[in-house]
Amino acid sequence: xxxxxxxxxxxxxxxFERQLVREDDVLRHMPERNADAGLPPIAVSASQGKxxxxxxRAMNAKRxxxxxxxxxxxxxxxxxxxxxxxxxxxxxxNAAFAAVAKKNFDMAGVSSRVHVRVGPAIDELRRLxxxxxxxxxxxxxxxxKPSNPHYFRLAMQLVRxxxxxVVDNVVREGEVADDASTDARVRxxxxxxxxxxxxxxxxATALQTVGAKGYDxxxxxxxx
Length: 224
What we know:
This protein has about 220 residues and is an alpha/beta fold. The protein has helices at about 5-20, 25-35, 45-60, 75-80, 95-110, 120-130, 150-160, 185-200, and strands spanning about 65, 85-90, 115-120, 135-140, 160-170, 200-210, 215-224. A seven-stranded mixed sheet has the order 3-2-1-4-5-7-6, with helices on both faces.
């Protein structure tokens, strides 16, 4: 959960969701169903999910990898943006979370284009990088933050030329700017930023955001 949410941030997010996001019934009730199943409330917000959805549509993306399935909320947004012959490979360490996500994908009618793979994401990303390099349009990373540099390094091997990598939760209430932080999540994100800084052929930026999920942000990169 976010450490702090200003009431006005919540009001604005609620307004945007009513006017612009317009979740369908499956998406609208998914956070409650996931909470009832014991999942932590750490999925993206509706507006964030819609943003990734729009990015995928704007790219005409067909193949996407998601690192961190949780209960499938962001995965449904992604899958709904893909064409009927599109493919989302979503990676989840926790088998119980993956089972909840599969039910949600079924309810959303997107199971035919979603492949849920359970186990350490690093292992699956390495396998995909070996067997299907540079063949994905986008990788969305929203998993254990200490592993961010490892996920990003492998994602660079997986996306096509001009492909996009999106990483969530890169601001962490502003702690990302603290070079003395001992928080492993912050250190992982800073190490990823340094990797990007030192890597040729990657163009990136990051944005701070406020809203129902508190003060955080995301990173977007294009790989040559």
